[in-house]
Amino acid sequence: MAEQLTAPAGPVSIYAEASPNPESMKFVLNAQLLADGVSVDYPNLEAAVNSPLAQELFNFDYVGRVFIAQNFVTITKTTDHQWAQLIPELRTFLKSYIEANGPIFTVDPAAEQAAAQQAAATPANASEADQATSQKIIDLLDNYVRPAVEQDGGNITFKSYHDGIVTVNLQGSCSGCPSATVTLKSGIENLLKRMVPEVKSVVAEGITI
């Protein structure tokens, strides 16, 4: 079983922080849930097979998506309930669960994430040049995009590169966020075009630009 978390010396404190996505709320903890740079995104209960914490959160009928990073959990709601009604319940649950040292993961997400990135960067049918370009893109997303996007409670990860087109996945609060298309085009696409001349466009699965 993976290491669960590094708990603080005293009680766990949690505060809620709004994200650009009005349906998502970021719950920030004074406890380490994952190593820096590692995150996991569960779009539904079925995807959360390796996270007992996420499975418990999906028991709340208004929870539609769970994103876990180093020291925060982003929850996306599916109902018209106001966050003012939901935040106290979710904060109390998270505090109690983590203070009781409840299991966060059953499989180390760091190893899974590293393997997934390696597979995305080196598909069998890609040329050496495309593989090198893919790795440059992954490094830029990890070093420049991830820290900024995590501040908003989500992440944007690399899926593929082909013929100048970069395809990414939207995670956490970024999925379904009204400003996601602007972030992709005015932010990430411009960055990648400037740093990697081979890049012509950036697209995200599940949204239309």
Task: List the defining traits of the structure above.
209 residues; alpha+beta; Ribosomal Protein S8, Chain: A, domain 1; GMP Synthetase, Chain A, domain 3; 2 domains; 5-stranded antiparallel beta sheet; 3-stranded mixed beta sheet; 5 helices
Task: Describe this structure as you would to a colleague.
The chain is an alpha+beta fold. The chain has two domains: 5-108, Ribosomal Protein S8, Chain: A, domain 1 (2-Layer Sandwich), CATH 3.30.1370; 110-206, Fe-S cluster assembly (FSCA) (GMP Synthetase, Chain A, domain 3), CATH 3.30.300.130. It is built from five helices and eight strands, in the order E-E-E-H-E-E-H-H-H-E-E-H-E. The protein has a five-stranded antiparallel sheet with strand order 1-2-5-4-3, covered by helices on one side. Strands 6-7-8 form a three-stranded mixed sheet. The longest helix has 24 residues, at 128-151. The chain is globular and about 50 Å long. The model has no long low-confidence stretch (mean pLDDT 87).
